[in-house]
Amino acid sequence: MTHPDDLGASLIEINRALHEDIIKGISVKMDLGQGKKGQTVWFIDFEHPENNDFLLVDEFKVKGQENCRADLVVFVNGLPLVVIECKI
Fold this sequence. Notes:
Number of strands: 5
Number of domains: 2
Helix content: 10-25%
Radius of gyration: 17 Å
Shape: extended
Largest sheet: 3 strands, antiparallel
Strand content: 35-45%
Strand order of the largest sheet: 3-4-5
Distance between the termini: 40 Å
């Protein structure tokens, strides 16, 4: 699997890897008092949507090489998942 930090990965490969991580979770090593063990970290609780934090932001500004402003951005648990432009 290609991860976003891999050099030379295309945007499609990066998006596919991020989508998979969001859907399937990621495995991390954690020490819960009995040595390090693999634990799955879930970004979104699909089984119990009420456990998630949803936020809709209007006029969301992003600073970078070129500043941009999205009309609407939907965040789920702090992750910007949807960008909506409402231009006429």
